[in-house]
Amino acid sequence: MGEPKTDRDAEFQAFIVGAWPRLLRTAYLLAGEQYAAEDLVQSAAEKACAAWTKVRRAGDPHCYVRRILVNEHARRWRRRAPELLVDAVPDAAGPEDGYARSDQRGALMAALATLPARQREAVVLRHWEDLSDSQAAVAMGCSVGAVRSHAAKGIAKLREAAALRELKGMTPIGGAV
Fold first, then answer.
1. 176 strand-pairing partners
2. What residues have CB less than 8 Å from 117, skipping those under 6 apart?
3. Which of 106, 107, 151, 165 is deepest in the core (most CB within 10 A)?
4. Which residue has better confidence, 92 or 34?
5. Is the pTM higher than 0.70?
């Protein structure tokens, strides 16, 4: 028959514990609020657990679960208005000037909140998750061309955002150039 349920459960648990921080960061960038990101990752984890044998057979479980996460976000986005992005990005690293980084992050999150869902997904997957166009296309369930188009439009809108234009003259730690 199949492998014992306890082995499957232990394997899934090890996977989800290791993948949780990265999935949470992606979900946060998509959803915009910590509680919404946690709900999104929890929903994706539940679906992945129910289909763990299939997820594992797919070859790259993280890619498969990320696709579940993006699909779940798209479903939720269609059902309600976009949420405001106001909190700091979880797991942000850097010993630099915390206030300046917080201001930069806040401006970026506010600008991200103005993007339509598909553009935000493309920008997050391409530029934060550092996925290739084809990997982002798989995660978003669309063509490579659509990913490129959404990402280009999203980046163009971010470049036009007033809050981000004000940061152009800042160094990485927030000081004047």
1. 170
2. 73, 74, 77, 82
3. 151
4. 34
5. no
